[in-house]
Write a structure and sequence with these properties.
Elements lengths: L1 H12 L9 E2 L2 E2 L11 E5 L2 E5 L2 E10 L6 H8 L6 E3 L3 H14 L3 E10 L5 E10 L3 E9 L4 H7 L7 E12 L4 E10 L1 E10 L8 E12 L1 E7 L2 E6 L7 E12 L5 E14 L1 H6 L10 E16 L8 E15 L3 E16 L2 E13 L10 E2 L14 E2 L3 E10 L2 E6 L7 E17 L14 E12 L3 E10 L4 E6 L4
Parallel strand pairs: 5-8
Antiparallel strand pairs: 1-2, 3-4, 5-6, 7-8, 9-10, 10-11, 11-12, 12-13, 13-16, 14-15, 16-17, 17-18, 18-19, 19-20, 20-21, 21-24, 22-23, 24-26, 25-26, 26-27, 27-28, 28-29
């Protein structure tokens, strides 16, 4: 019951765990530590204006948005015609408007021009955007193994262990910020999926709805963990031994720019062959080869960073709560996860970050398939990329200290590719983690302190593509070079 109480506290209080928010509703609010002078001179394109405290926004003009509707842009920037703003804070507002629009991942460039109106107490605010290609064809290269490094080194870069496919995503369907995506995948895992999300269905643009469905199958699948390594069954050209059906409905509530609440009601149906079940009778509960369950999913996001995909300054928070009630192959499962990131620009070109991830599960003893743990997706201690650590509760802390040595953008006269940026960040880092397991088996990494340190380099380029090359040492006195394609 103690763990269940912790889970409930984490889920309930996650949305309120952020202090010092800069936003009230959709409006930008200056931080309280800023000081405003009684009389300010502000130079804009048409000359010097002298205002006392505040100026009124008489007109907002959006240009260059051939696809995106202007009301979507106005909703994101959080300022409206008729608002009055502090004159000595205009540069702050301009920077926030630019960051907010770039965070939509719909625009390559955002430029702004401010001019005074006839009465010299008002502003005409012109925002010019250059849109990205709205339909993004994403080539899927998915490894059967946990990451690229395991596939390339431990599995001798066997192409039979690679899934390849294509996802067509319209991130701005009908210009309303709606997302429509279709996925087709072949290879190690075959998959077909479709999803649709409409972020705003009400006049106040705070409520959204979505729907999704996918089916996938594999001829090979892991069925157990031996000495922190996954053990697989099946043949590449053999019969299908695992098939999954998933679908759900979602509701999104976004009362302000920085905060977002997502609720999902999902149904999932997983099936495995008798061959796999004979190898591990506890793969699902009650020695079943079929798992069917309903899932209630809640997610909270706080976006207080300069760039969600590769953050350098600010604070971000993601909290998830999941409750599952099974009909077959699963009795009951609940867990909560948290990810908190603090990013800071301590000097020109110098940055540091702390990222915390954790999970609490109840009950802790679950069928093999529903355990998971460290070593998958983004939840791993760097330097332990070749290991899987099954368990229930875990915590992971990452620290990075980096320097920007290159930041350049090349301009091209090609629509949707008008600018190609390239940024390079050498860094040093350190990680620490711990995972508990009620039944560790022959795992030598469960229920013990894990740590690592190292150096690397991050490369960020067009459409937020990220490449991380890192050399790490772990507590086992092992070291190696690792390649990743996501943020910390």
């Amino acid at each position: 019951m103690k763990n269940l109480s912790l889970i409930l506290l984490l889920v309930v209080f996650t949305p309120f765990a952020v202090s010092g928010q800069k936003y009230h509703g959709n409006e930008l609010v200056m931080p309280p530590w800023r000081h405003y002078s009684g009389e300010t001179q502000y130079i804009i394109d048409t000359g010097v204006l002298i205002w006392d405290h505040k100026a009124r926004i008489d007109q907002i003009i959006i240009e260059g948005n051939t696809v995106t509707r202007s009301r979507i842009i106005i909703r994101e920037i959080g300022i409206h015609e008729g608002d009055r703003i502090n004159v000595d804070s205009i540069e702050y507002y301009k920077e926030q408007v630019k960051l907010r629009l770039l965070n939509l991942q719909l625009f390559n460039e955002v430029d702004q021009t401010l001019t005074h109106t006839d009465n010299y107490n008002g502003i005409q605010w012109v925002i010019r955007v250059k849109e990205r290609w709205p339909v993004i064809p994403s080539v899927i290269v998915q490894f059967a193994d946990r990451n690229f490094n395991t596939w390339f080194v431990k599995e001798n870069h066997d192409l039979r262990r690679v899934s390849a496919g294509l996802t067509l995503t319209d991130k701005n369907f009908r210009g309303n910020l709606e997302t429509l995506a279709v996925t087709v995948q072949e290879g190690y895992t075959q998959k077909l999926g479709i999803s649709y999300m409409r972020p705003y269905v009400n006049k106040g643009q705070t409520n959204g709805v979505g729907i999704w469905f996918s089916v996938s199958q594999s001829r090979q699948a892991y069925y157990n963990t031996d000495s922190n390594k996954l053990v697989y069954a099946g043949a590449y050209s053999g019969p299908v031994i695992q098939r999954n059906y998933e679908g759900g409905l979602s509701y999104v509530y976004r009362p302000a720019y920085a905060s977002k609440h997502t609720f999902q009601f999902n149904y999932k149906d997983y099936r495995v062959s008798d061959t796999l079940l004979q190898l591990n009778p506890e793969y699902y509960a009650n020695k079943s080869n079929h798992a069917r369950f309903l899932e209630l999913f809640y997610r909270y996001e706080y976006n207080g960073v300069d760039n969600w995909n590769y953050s350098l300054n600010g604070f971000k928070l993601v909290g998830n709560g999941v409750v599952r009630k099974g009909f077959e192959g699963l009795d009951f499962q609940s867990y909560a996860t948290i990810e908190a990131g603090l990013f800071s620009n301590i000097a020109p070109g110098w940055y540091y970050s702390f990222v915390l991830r954790g999970r609490l599960m109840y009950p802790q003893d679950q069928p093999y398939f529903f355990r998971g743990g460290l070593g998958t997706q983004t939840d791993y201690v760097r330097g332990y990329e070749y290991y899987v650590i099954d368990g229930s509760n875990y915590g992971l802390l990452r620290f990075d200290f980096k320097r920007e040595i290159f930041n350049r953008t090349w301009s091209f006269p090609v629509k949707y590719f008008t600018a190609i940026p390239l940024r390079i960040y050498p860094k040093i880092f350190a990680d620490a983690g711990y995972i508990t397991s009620p039944s560790p088996g022959n795992s030598f990494l469960s229920n013990r302190f894990l740590y690592s340190y190292g150096a690397g380099i991050d490369v960020v380029t067009l459409y937020d593509i990220k490449i991380r090359l890192e050399y790490a040492w772990n507590h086992l006195n092992q070291n190696g070079l690792y390649l990743h394609f996501n943020s910390e």
